[in-house]
UniProtKB/TrEMBL annotation:
Keywords from the UniProt entry: Pyridoxal phosphate, Transferase
The keyword Protein biosynthesis is annotated on this UniProt entry: no
Species lineage: Bacteria, Pseudomonadati, Bacteroidota, Flavobacteriia, Flavobacteriales
Keyword Transferase: yes
This protein's encoding gene: bioF
Names of the cofactor(s): pyridoxal 5'-phosphate
Protein name: 8-amino-7-oxononanoate synthase
Length: 388
């Protein structure tokens, strides 16, 4: 086996020197404040059993998709599930991708064209940025949730007609940001989009199962689904399974089937994976108790952090994600280690994942966390922050 090239070794060593080397964690029995399993669907026995029964009832005894969806992998479950998702989200269509990363890369690399402009929030997820980098469109980032800066860029990028083809401006953001847990003013953003005739795209990965009636997401909470060009729904968070879907018009679905390379050139999901998505959505539609418990815990977390004097170090959030800014990789790793040793699984987020000086502890809340657990972990955080 040949050794790693020297230039790659240097990059690894730089991570070690900056206390930023990533390593795969081992499983643990700590109290979960780190996973994205907001509603505990990933461990739901009823979803597990219902998925199995659905496959048995439909005589679906198959372990794999056998090929890409354009060849042999488009089993009947896809149609049933995509139709259910479209109806649930009040969308003309839904197209399932293998992951949220695949959906974003496929969408942003295929939809915006050479003469188009993409304006994206500076804190957009890496999958969005990677997709944009693969596009032929021009792209510019606007300051986080700053719509005055967005308007400035829109006016600067005013659409032109080139070779008789009008250019299009796409505005891209997230309804819940994965590192900060905050949300944009969706109504204001829609107003800006309509004012200038832009195409608005929302990544709702961390809003599904958390916001809106039956956890339908933040866009539907405000009834603005008809004002949005596309929504990306990811299933690895609130739904506790795997995959993602792009929601939009029937024409958009047809376009992605023809031009999204991360859809075209990959083996489809197995029938079991697609059935799990369907059953998880069915569970979301009829089961509100988990969402209610999660929302109660979010309120309790915010109340407790305020009572303990911790509000100044936290990014403002009403979602399931709460980030305490603790600058410095070494310091935030040390505090995380102390908290973990007391039985709480809280993860540090280090630079370069976040900008230097914005290192943080990221608390993910769940329906299954008790209020006592939330109070105890915040009490411990306060002791460590004020001591150090």
């Amino acid at each position: 086996m040949r050794n790693l090239p020297n230039n790659l070794k240097v990059k690894l060593e730089s991570r070690v020197q900056n206390n930023a080397l990533r390593q795969l964690p081992l499983g643990n029995n700590l109290i979960d404040f780190s996973s994205n399993d907001y509603l505990d669907f990933s461990k739901s026995e009823s979803i597990f059993n219902a998925t199995h029964q659905y496959l048995v009832d439909n005589n679906c005894i198959q372990n794999g998709a056998t090929g890409s969806r354009l060849l042999s992998g488009n089993h009947n479950l896809y149609d049933v599930t995509e139709n259910f998702i479209a109806q649930f989200h009040q969308s003309e269509s839904a197209l399932i991708f293998n992951s949220g990363y695949d959906a974003n890369v496929g969408f942003f690399s295929a939809v915006p064209q050479r003469n188009d402009v993409i304006l994206y929030d500076e804190l957009s997820h890496a999958s969005i940025r990677d997709g944009i980098s693969m596009s032929n469109a021009k792209s510019y980032k606007f300051k986080h949730n700053d719509f005055e800066d967005l308007e400035r860029l829109i006016l600067k990028s005013k659409p032109l007609t080139i070779n008789h083809q009008p250019s299009t401006i796409y505005i891209v953001t997230e309804s819940v940001f994965s590192m900060d847990g905050d949300c944009p003013n969706i109504e204001e953003l829609v107003a800006v989009s309509e004012k200038y005739g832009c195409y608005l795209v929302f990544d709702e990965a961390h809003a599904l199962g958390v916001f809106g009636t039956n956890g339908k997401g933040l866009v539907q909470q405000f009834g603005l689904q008809d004002k949005v060009f596309a929504r990306i729904m990811t299933f690895g968070k609130g739904l506790g399974c795997h995959g993602a879907a792009v929601l939009g018009s029937q024409e958009l679905k047809q376009y992605l089937v023809n031009f999204a390379r991360s859809f075209i050139y990959t083996t489809g999901l197995s029938p079991h994976s697609v059935a799990t998505i369907l059953v998880a959505y069915q569970h979301l539609e009829i089961e509100n108790n988990d969402i209610h418990l999660l929302r109660e815990n979010i309120i309790h977390f915010n109340q407790q952090k305020n009572l303990l004097g911790l509000k100044p170090i936290f990014v403002r959030s009403k979602s399931a994600i709460h980030s305490a800014i603790i600058p410095g990789n070494e310091k935030v790793k040390w505090i995380a280690k102390q908290i973990q040793e007391k039985g709480f699984d809280v993860k540090p987020i280090l630079s370069p994942t976040v900008p230097e000086g914005q290192e943080r502890l990221r608390f993910c809340l769940h329906a299954f966390n008790s209020k006592e657990e939330i109070s105890n972990v915040l009490q411990l955080l306060g002791e460590l922050v004020f001591k150090s």
